[in-house]
Design goal:
Helix content is 0%, strand content 51%. By secondary structure, it is mainly β.
């Protein structure tokens, strides 16, 4: 069993930044792949970014160059640094490992 707890969401102006955190209940060294997803109002959940254990990072096209996924193994934490935020980034952001999901954290970018 793995628990994932996200934090760091909030209200931000266009062009602003936020850093989301996802704390796992077990060592990240046990995880092959971790990811961030998001679900905008009235839309399906979509993949945002992936971090492989070897350090490889992958992003959906709409966030490339603006978002960065990273990890701190000592803190069992995965981050999503979000810069140059746009209104279309507004969504609930979820941390994911395998079949485990966090409760989500809401990001609202004013329009």
């Amino acid at each position: 069993q793995v628990q994932l707890v996200e934090s760091g969401g909030g209200l931000v102006q266009p062009g602003g930044s936020l850093r989301l955190s996802c704390v796992a209940s077990k060592s990240l060294l046990l995880f092959n792949v971790m990811g961030w997803y998001r679900q905008a109002p009235g839309k399906q959940r979509e993949w945002v970014a992936t971090l492989a254990r070897g350090g490889g990072t992958y992003y959906t096209d709409s966030v490339k160059g603006r978002f960065t996924i990273s990890r701190d193994n000592a803190k069992n934490t995965v981050y999503l640094q979000m810069n140059s935020l746009k209104p279309e980034d507004t969504a609930v952001y979820y941390c994911n490992y395998d079949t485990y999901w966090g409760q989500g954290t809401l990001v609202t970018v004013l329009s």
